[in-house]
């Protein structure tokens, strides 16, 4: 071999990808911490309106959710196009609300039952009729703390 | 092939090249199955259920700020058509009554806002109206907190302070049974 070996350094050294898994793990941990496994698959289309007077729901385990909206496209054939409500995971009617609340209450320890909040996620285009029935049923079941879910309003 | 010494064999055992693939897989799994929960909303306390209706005639008209929303999403405030933009200011003026007008509330403790919809009103309009009314109260509470305690009103204030402010300006919003003139969609 020649004494001076030519350095074939014509290409810039490739970017080391040794830290790529670390970046990916960081992203992964971020998502694991920040997100929540989606429990209910939405069968109704819900686009909540915007509002400014918002309060954050603190104790997520003490919140049950009621979705009200028009059925999504793939369920249109089954349920029609009138607005309907979805309690947790199942499509229901206002008269099923007391049972749904009771089931939820049964899983909550006694002392915290007074703090349970019902989050109403209602589509903006739904009319007040069905909502009035829902509110009446909630009042009859003594579930008085409710939260109208809304998106924060950007400064207009 | 030169014999690999036993020392060499101990050093590179795990091929870490596929760690990135595993990490990608897990990341995609989490991206697909989870949601960033955005649970904020307007907190409302419904009145307890009672079979008999509150008799509306007992209340003095000057103490009642009536807001009606019809199925065409138009507002009627104290029997005249109104714009939603002015709702908050009018509500604030009604509750506090700084100039002591005869047609506005006697005192903030006696002020009642009454809201009545139609079954055909859009939820979006209803929420906007409710939002404006709640904003009116929040701003009044803020002003009161600044005047009394020098801080902004917030949920984290000590309960005694909150009680003092809410005692002076209670949130009284009564919702009547909706009318059924419009179509429900």
The residue fraction in helices of chain A comes out at 25-40%
Shape annotation of chain A: elongated
* Uncertain spans of chain A: none
Number of strands of chain A: 10
Low-confidence stretches of chain B: none
* CATH class category label of the domain at 44-149 in chain A: Alpha Beta
Briefly note the CATH topology name of the domain at 44-149 in chain A.
Answer: Nucleotidyltransferase, domain 5
Overview of this structure, please?
- Chain A is an alpha/beta fold.
- Chain A is built from 4 helices and 10 strands, in the order αβββββαββαβαββ.
- In chain A, the strands form 2 sheets. In chain A, strands 2, 5, 6, 7, 8 and 9 form a 6-stranded mixed sheet that branches. Chain A has a two-stranded parallel ribbon with strand order 3-10.
- The relative contact order of chain A is 0.18.
- The model of chain A has no long low-confidence stretch (mean pLDDT 80).
- Chain B is an alpha/beta fold and 185 residues long.
- Chain B has a domain of 117 residues.
- Chain B has a 5-stranded mixed sheet with strand order 5-4-3-6-7, covered by helices on one side.
- The radius of gyration of chain B is 29 Å and the shape is elongated.
- The interface between A and B is large, with 57 and 51 residues.
- Strand 9 of chain A pairs antiparallel with strand 2 of chain B.
